[in-house]
Amino acid sequence: MRERRLVAIVTACATTVCGKADASGFSIASFGGEHGTPTTTNATALYYNPAGIADSEGGHFYVDSNTAWRYATFNRPAAPSDSPVAADALGANTGHASLLNVIPSPFIGATYRLGRFALGGAFYTPFGGQSVWNKNDHFANSNTYPGAVDGVQRWWAISGVLRSSFYTLGAAYDFGRLSVGVTGNLIQTTVALSEAREPSGENDLRSEGRSVIDVGSWDASFGLGVTYDLIPGKVKLGASYQSRPGVSGGIVTTGTLKTLLVNGALDDNRVAFTTDLPDVFRAGVAYRPRPDVELRFFGDFQTWSVLERQCAYLEGSSCDLNPDGSAKAGSDVIVNQPRRWKDTFGLRGSASFFPARRIELLAGMGYSSNAIPDATYEPGVLDANAATFSLGSIFTVVERLALGLGYMQLLYFPRDTAGKNESATFVSPSRAPDGGGSYRMLAGVANASVDFAF
Length: 454
Known about the structure:
By secondary structure, this protein is an all-beta fold. 1% of the residues lie in helices and 53% in strands. The chain contains 1 helix and 19 strands. It has one helix at 45-48, and strands at 59-76, 95-114, 117-132, 159-174, 178-197, 209-231, 235-242, 251-260, 266-275, 280-290, 293-302, 309-314, 333-338, 344-356, 359-368, 386-398, 401-412, 415-416, 438-453. A hairpin with a 2-residue loop joins strand 10 and strand 11. The N and C termini lie far apart (61 Å). Residues 1-22 have low confidence and may be disordered.
């Protein structure tokens, strides 16, 4: 059995707009700002609730540009499972690591309603992220331990991208007070990651190499939604469902894994990598107590418990494992990563105030739960319970053109998983260095949108 260490999921980045908290696995679907809800009527309804496009008027071309910054730190203590470290290598596997990344993410969509029927299409990325960790300057000129310059987190991630982008077509029909909608999604998933590699799945500096994975896939999913005017002009309800890719679940990406061994040899293989995304359920209500005020309350439930593991194996083989993490006979598994993620939920309240006919002021706050248990938490998959606070505005420049600006601050709760991580308790190819330590995150997102009616 050829044993290689690979991390094939990267840090979830906060490429969101002024919407719900970004703390559910690597879900980043917050485009549309405070109007990114199950009762919205703009083009983002194609993801949040496709019935909403039947509640719009005429045609709309909608562009949403989000620029997120995210700062994170990882402080790793020594773990009992660590490989021995020489005196001149202290700090190579323990200590402080950090990242500060700025990342853009767009939403582009268009809808058109004719009579009671509406159609729409959009491109967006509701799941994913990317990260580049800072260097460890203490080893910048080291000839003995050159790999240590990439930071103590390098055994899980040096830099990388994980992204699932949706190409969506949708249709909806307005029956009067009731509207229904459906979408079909073509999903492009890309995983590209570089990290430190050690043949036994440990963190021995003497045999440290590098692995680079580059895989991808195309999958399909669908969405359903309904809106109902409980009190026309006053109270509107919305609910929707987004299926997992492949409907029954499971993404299988394929591509290459290149591993540079400590002796300089290059191991190049065709691999398959399996992962999963959740089913997403949403519900919300919009209430107009008076013409110049709208209040919204909405939430989601995401079935991240479907992500039991992520597995990379030689293409044409399979990922059959024993309870201890070892591969069964006939399975050429390169690495198995136990995940055992948890279902998550998010809740949010927001409000709009219209001081003038062409001006809308927005504010909101929310909470989202964390998907990742302490036992499988690591620097390659950052997540935490989070609270968010946002402010924004929309200005109708002319009758058919509206411009929006907003900012959201994400406050992640600190996490300390030292002594709780189980990665080093498994047998290869499921074994990995202990990812326990102290984690901190802070993020903010600036958003600009354009809505052109035609």
